[in-house]
Amino acid sequence: MLERIGRYHEALGHDVLCLGLESPGLTETQRRDSLDVFFGELAPQLRAKHPAKIWADSAPAGAVGHGPRCADG
Q1: Closest Cα to residue 54, out of 8, 17, 2, 19?
Q2: Residues 6 or more apart from 38 whose CB is under 8 A from it?
């Protein structure tokens, strides 16, 4: 997952990643566990490797949630 998103970032240069949260076939617990892994493990690594530039001047350090339906909150 990290490599795939990294390739997209390198190819497109995007700073915002929006993800759909629909998970057909998963239970609510499985879906929440998946989100916990993404936000707890993957998102911090993505932020470290591919820091966003668009909020560099306005977001407090460690801020999460720069808009509805975005990967970081």
Answers
A1: 17
A2: 19, 71
Element at 68 (helix H, strand E)? none
Q: What is the pTM of this model?
A: 0.58
CA angle 58, 60, 66 (to 5 degrees): 70
Measured CA to CA, the distance from residue 45 to residue 50 in angstroms comes to 8
pLDDT digits (tens, 9 = 90+) for 10-63: 888 887 877 777 778 999 999 899 889 988 998 899 888 888 777 666 555 555
Average pLDDT over residues 67-72: 46
- Classify residue 26 as left (phi > 0), alpha (psi -120 to 50) or beta: beta
